[in-house]
Design a protein that fits this description.
The chain is an alpha+beta fold. The chain is built from 16 helices and 34 strands. The relative contact order is 0.06. Its main location: membrane. This is Interleukin-17 receptor C.
Length: 686
């Protein structure tokens, strides 16, 4: 069946590592053989009649093995078919028979029977090919010279071009001679199926779709296709069945190519480069490019794709504004960095000479020396308004300090950054001039500090009262604006809910701004658990707070249920169970590595074993309460929390508030044993 050229070229790929199929021109079949042999292909197909096996009258040619290779037969420039090339390896079978009188008399026979021993061998080799719905038989005549006739030895091979077949079909090949001296050879081969490979985009979401059968195994590779140099493999997997694979938006660059192939012999590889004209890919390319200065005057540009760049010197003010061209300009340099034929772009990356030439960023003045005779060289200083001549009457800093800067330049206090036939670039330090300006400012500050100290001595009692009031106001403000904490738990029973309520009330006195579903039942009923959790989680994260996952036997069971069955059945939990509703949002944060810094875990002593917490949630700190209360409170309050002594006092207050509710839970029949039943043997099934 003819295959459109664009589909076949997709199968062959565009990467140097893709299997490239040989191209055959024309419609005619052909045969060729090893050096020393002669062969001829009969015109047209023949009837496949193997016949019965007969005895060899002496040495004969027989096929010993079959070998196949995929090629493409092209009728026009854009019209090619997949074709199977078959190579038949031949060997000499049998021996010359001795005359009877030679065996009886034990002497040499008459010289006349020796002639056949030096004769060449000729054979008619039949190739039978079947691939639904076609079947063909061809006849090859092969002649071997007498010099190559050695019984039991291989003499070479004959190659037939070729049998047409479709991708994904099963082909069967037989080979025998006429007459047939041995059982025919046979070979069955499954031709590779071409995976359907496509890329879909929905806004910022990009997906790679491979539509193959469920039992089909195939390899998938993502690589950077460089015009110069070897291909850079980036990602490789062996997969099975249809797949939809998300691609990270920031990883998409113009030279990103995708390659897929069945994990089978003679596999044809599919390779596409779908992002060559994507504007987002070009933006990502420039974001990924890195410009590095190399001493003394070299530079290097690293980018995942080939590009054309232009390098030029520019300057940047200490305020980190845009990099401005030098005036007068120094020469530009056209450079090729893995030149790509798809587009020529001007380099937009910036790297300042301060980074490697002057160490840390300084407030230096850049001077441009224009070319000319030694006595007629001019200097100007680079400023945001342009390049100011040093001996001008402008009202800029460079003009006011022009004579001093020229003296610094001639006395060797300036550092030369660049020098060529057209000009030079100098950096002159400005520290001593800046220090002179700030002397009066420091003197004014010292006088103001002395006046404040004198006022403090005169009004000491009034100042103490004012400081006391200020301290109380600060404490009240801290209590009102404590760090946010969202508590999530599984309502195992009424006693456990009372224990969580006691913890929430104690944390409010730390102080923390605590959100828990126990205090928001009306909002839960109006919004639903999932919407309520979304709103609370967003508010907590935006304010720099933490989400606290309180693990209990019921919470651990819910986590395992989600991890194993992709979520519980609808309606399996109460209408106010925010923990069950929140797992659909909490689990992706842990699976995608976004949990650290946003979540902490906790469980109560005696109610749950430490090893019962699923391994997935141990990516964040998990505390045992009340034994690890100081560390727990320190994590909740963050780096701005109280000193260690004050933190210990607050931990004791929270422990005293928790202990009655915890003792009540431990006394409840069957509750204390739940913690021991959720140990390591219970199965951390993550």
């Amino acid at each position: 069946m003819p295959m459109p050229w664009f589909l076949l070229s997709l199968a062959l790929g565009r990467s140097p590592v893709v299997l490239s199929l040989e191209r055959l021109e024309g419609l005619q079949d052909a045969a060729r053989c090893s050096p020393g042999l002669s062969c001829h292909l009969w015109d047209g197909d023949v009837v496949c009649l193997p016949g019965s096996i007969v005895s060899a009258p002496g040495p004969v040619l027989v096929p010993t093995s079959l070998q196949t290779e995929l090629v493409r037969r092209c009728y026009q420039e854009t019209d090619c078919d997949l074709c199977v090339r078959v190579a038949v390896h031949l060997a000499v079978h049998g021996h010359w028979e001795k005359p009877e009188d030679e065996e009886k008399l034990g002497r040499a026979a008459d010289p006349e029977p020796e002639e056949p021993r030096n004769a060449s061998l000729q054979a008619q080799v039949v190739l039978s090919f079947q691939a639904y719905p076609t079947a063909r038989c061809v006849l090859l005549e092969v002649q071997v010279p007498a010099a190559l006739v050695q019984p039991g030895q291989s003499v070479g091979s004959v190659v037939f071009d070729c049998f047409e077949a479709a991708l994904g079909t099963e082909v069967q090949i037989w080979s025998y001679t006429q007459p047939r001296y041995q059982k025919e050879l046979n070979l069955t081969r499954q031709l590779p199926a071409l995976p359907w490979l496509s890329v879909t985009a929905d806004g910022d979401n990009v997906h790679l779709v491979l539509d193959v059968s469920e039992e089909q195994s195939f390899g998938l590779s993502l690589y950077w296709n460089q015009v110069q140099g070897p291909v850079k493999p980036w990602w490789h997997r062996n997969l099975t069945g249809p797949q939809t694979i998300p691609l990270n938006q920031t990883d998409i660059v113009p030279c990103l190519c995708i390659q897929a192939w069945p994990l089978e012999p003679d596999s044809v590889r599919t390779s596409i480069c779908p992002f060559t004209e994507d504007p987002r890919a070009h933006r990502n390319l420039w974001r990924a490019a890195r410009l590095q200065l190399l001493p003394p005057r070299g530079w290097r540009l690293d980018a995942p794709c080939s590009l054309h760049a232009q390098a030029t010197l520019c300057w940047q003010a200490p305020s980190r504004g845009p990099c401005q061209p030098l005036v007068p300009p120094l020469p530009r340099e056209n450079v090729t960095v893995n030149v790509s034929s798809w587009e020529k772009m001007q380099l937009q990356l910036q790297e300042c000479l301060w980074a490697d030439s002057l160490g840390p960023l300084k407030d230096d003045m850049l001077l441009v020396e224009a070319g000319g005779p030694q006595d007629n060289r001019s200097f100007c200083a680079l400023e945001p308004s342009g390049c100011t001549p040093l001996l001008s009457r402008a009202s800029t800093r460079a003009a006011r300090l022009g004579e001093q800067l020229l003296q610094d330049l001639h006395s060797g206090q300036c550092l030369q950054l660049w020098d060529d036939d057209l000009g030079a670039l100098w950096a002159c330090p400005m520290d001593k001039y800046i220090h002179q300006r700030w002397v009066l400012v420091w003197l004014a500050c010292l006088l103001f500090a002395a006046a404040l100290f004198l006022l403090f001595l005169l009004k000491k009692d009034h100042v103490k009262g004012w400081l006391r009031l200020l301290k109380e106001d600060i404490r009240a403000g801290a209590a009102a604006t404590g760090r946010a904490a969202l508590l999530l738990y599984s309502a195992d029973d009424a006693g456990f809910e009372r224990l969580v309520g006691a913890l929430a009330s104690a944390l409010c006195q730390v102080p923390l701004r605590v959100a828990v579903d126990l205090w928001s039942r009306r909002e839960l009923s109006a919004q639903g658990p999932l919407a309520w959790f979304h709103a609370q989680r967003r508010r907590t994260v935006q304010e720099g707070g933490l989400v606290v996952l309180i693990f209990s036997p019921g919470a651990v069971a819910l986590c395992h249920e989600w991890l194993q069955d992709a979520g519980p059945a609808p309606g399996a939990h109460g209408p106010h169970d925010a923990f069950a509703a929140s797992l659909s949002c909490v689990l992706p944060d842990f699976l995608q590595g976004r949990a650290p810094g946003r979540y902490v875990g906790a469980y109560f002593d005696g109610l749950l074993h430490a090893d019962a917490v699923p391994a997935l949630f141990r990516a964040v700190p998990v505390f045992s309460l009340p034994s690890q209360l100081p560390a727990f409170l320190g994590s909740l309050q963050g780096p701005r929390g109280p000193r260690p002594g004050r933190l210990g006092e607050r931990a004791e207050q929270v422990a005293r508030a928790l202990q009655p509710a915890l003792d009540s839970c431990l006394r409840t029949p069957g509750t204390a044993g739940m913690g021991r039943g959720m140990g390591p043997e219970a199965g951390d099934r993550t």
